[in-house]
Amino acid sequence: MEEEVKTVHREQHAAKEMFATEEVMSIPEPLASDKSSSKGIPPEITTHKLSIDPRFKPRVLERYSENPQSQCIVHEIFDSAYALAQDQNGNYVTQGWTEGSIMCLERGKPHERSRIIEKLTVNVVQLSQHKYASNVVEKCLEYGDSAERELLIEEILADSEANDNLLSMMKDQFANYVVQKILEISNDKHRDILLSRIRVHLRALKKYTYGKHIVARFEQLSDEGV
Q: What are phi and psi for residue 139, nearest 5 degrees?
């Protein structure tokens, strides 16, 4: 199972590299005489197409970067950020926006990235345990500003009596990578809180395949005197 997860991450990394360099593929002709959707979005570019059709990668959207309709596409993507983040193809659109990548209509501006992160924060624990959305969460942590990172981390650290979000994430095959990312990018305050919480669960984590990844990272940071 662990090797399977590593394979997934390798495949996603390879796919992302391909999307960043591939030439924009030709966009198929709209069906019949329907030249635009009710929202003014070209019918061949919708979040449905972005999610189910592998030809509609972020670079394809560059075709419309100077088009007045582009803002309609932007709003359509914002409205569907949660669904796209969990989709095999659509997650690359969301990742591109959080990176500020040229792949998405040359946008990904700070206020637009903030809208994506705001929409995802409330479900960050659930998304972190998802095969595709976990990569989006990592990008949010990596490219968000300090305030956005704090919102995401606080949501993860906020436990109820009946639910320990952090523990469930540390044992999860995908979310453990999100926890490692937090350890990598967090400020001293959050890193200290996280390390103290990990310390409490060290014995339990050693029993789980993916928890051992966290234990190894904890021991590495301890050796470095962090």
A: -65, -35
